[in-house]
Amino acid sequence: MRMVFRWFGEGNDSVHLSQMKQIPGVEGVVWALHDLPPGEVWPLERIQQVKQYANNYGFHTEVVESVNIHETIKLGSDERDYYIDNYIQTIKHLATIGVKVICYNFMPVFDWIRTDLYGKLPDESSALFYEKDKVEDMDPLALVEKIAANPDYTMPGWEPERLATLKDLFEAYKDVSQTDLMNNLQYFLERVIPVCEEHDVKLALHPDDPPWEIFNLPRIVTTQQKIREILQLHPSKYHGLTLCSGALGVRPDNNIPEMIYEFKERIHFAHIRNVKVFNNGDFIETSHRTKDGTLPMDDIVKAYHDIGYKGYVRPDHGRHIWDEECRPGYGLYDRALGIMYIWGLWDAYNNLQGKEDYIVAHTFKSKE
Predict the structure, then answer these.
(1) What is the pTM of this model?
(2) Which residues pair with 116 in a beta bridge?
(3) Radius of gyration from C-alpha coordinates of the chain
C-alpha cells in the first residue's frame, strides 16, 4: 500500500507540503492543473513545474486526480475526437514526468453532489452532507449557486467555466441513456488505452458520487455489476478503477470488501473513507473510524491487506475539525487522522499475519 495525499497546488490549498511531509508514510501528492478546463492539453512546462515543486519536499507526482473528460466525449458528439486527441497528448506529457495513474470519472455534468458543505455532526465538527429529499426537489441551478458560492476555494468538479453552460448541458443529455453513455465510454477507451499501454500510464475510473441517477442524468459507475460490465469494455489492465469506498458505500447493496476481492487486478487507486448513511437516504461523511460510520472500514482495509495491495491509497474527504479553515472536505487534520487509522489497521493485520504464521508453524513442529 502506497499512501498519497490530495493537494490542489501551490497557492490553491490550505495545506502546505511542509505540513504534509509530517504525516507518517505519505510518499506522494495527488495533483492536477485545476485551473485548466476539461478538454485542454496540459502544457508540459506546467507539468514539470508541479513535479519540481513536489520533489523539493520529497514527494512524487505519480498520481493525477483528475484529467477531466470533456462533455462532448460523454455525449458522443461530433467534436469528441478533437478532445480525445487532446486527452491523449496530455497522457503523453504526463508520462514524461513519471505519472503512473490518472484518476478520472465519466459522470455527466457534475463530478459529485452534496447539499451542504458544512453539515453538522454530533461532536460539533462538520462535513459534506447529502440530503436526498432536497436533491429531489431542488433546481440544479440553485445547487450550483450554493456550491459555487464558497468564497475561498473552488470545489473540484464545480469549476465556474464548466458550469456556465449548465442549461445547454441538461438539454444535450436529455436523450442520452445509460447504454449511450456506456458506448461512449467504450469509444473513449478504445482510442486512449493503446496510448496508455505504450506509455505505461493506467486509467482509474472513479465511481459516480452518489451512485444513482440525479436530475435525470444517466450514471453508469454505480454497482458491482455495473463495474463488472465496465471492466469488460476493454480487456487491458490499463483500464481500471479508482475504488472509492465512500462513493460506492452509500448504497446498501454495494459490498466494498467483495468488490476489492473481485476487482483486485484492476484497482489502480483506492479512496478510503467512511460515511454515515441514514434510513431516509441522507448521508454525511464521518471520521474514518469504523464505529463512527456505516461502512466496515476494518474489513475494507483487511481486504486490501488480504490481496497484497501495492497500489496507491489516499484518505478521502475529511471532517472540518479544530477550527481549521480549509477547502470543504480537504483539510489537513482529519485526513491526517484518517491516514493514521488506516495505517493502524494495516500494521495490525501485518502483526496478526505474522503471529498466525508462527502459531501454525509451531503447532506443526509440535505434532512432529
Answers:
(1) 0.91
(2) 129
(3) 20
H/E element, 30: strand 26-31
Measure the CA–CA gap between 20 and 26, rounded to whole angstroms: 8
35 a catalytic residue: no
Grid cell listed for 122: 454530533
Helix/strand number for the chain, H first, E second: 14, 12
Residue in the structure block whose three cell numbers are 485545476:
34
Can you tell me which residue has the cell 441514514? 278
Q: Which of 239, 271, 288, 320 is catalytic?
A: 271
Distances (CA, A) of 347 to 25, 321, 357: 12, 26, 15
Tell me the residue length of the chain: 368
Determine whether 268 is an active site residue.
no
pLDDT in tens, 298-325: 999 999 999 999 999 999 899 999 999 9
Options 13, 173, 239, 244, the catalytic residue: 244
The answer to whether 317 is a known catalytic residue is yes
- 358 catalytic? Reply is no
Q: Cβ(72)–Cβ(171) under 8 Å? A: no
Catalytic residue, from 268, 316, 326, 334: name it.
316
Q: What is the pLDDT of residue 365?
A: 46
